[in-house]
Specification:
The protein is mainly α. It contains two helices and no strands.
């Protein structure tokens, strides 16, 4: 698969964020969820 520079960087950032999120406590995850949902970064399926 031939990734462009932007696609590669995007995948790299996703992996870094995933690894970081896995280390958060429940309280930290809830705070992150609240922050992201109020900024409309999270859209739950209905």
């Amino acid at each position: 698969m031939d990734f462009s520079s932007d696609e590669y960087r995007r995948e790299e950032l996703i992996l870094l964020i995933e690894r970081s999120v896995q280390q958060l406590t429940l309280q930290e995850l809830e705070a992150l969820y609240y922050d992201m949902s109020t900024k409309n970064y999270i859209h739950e399926a209905t």
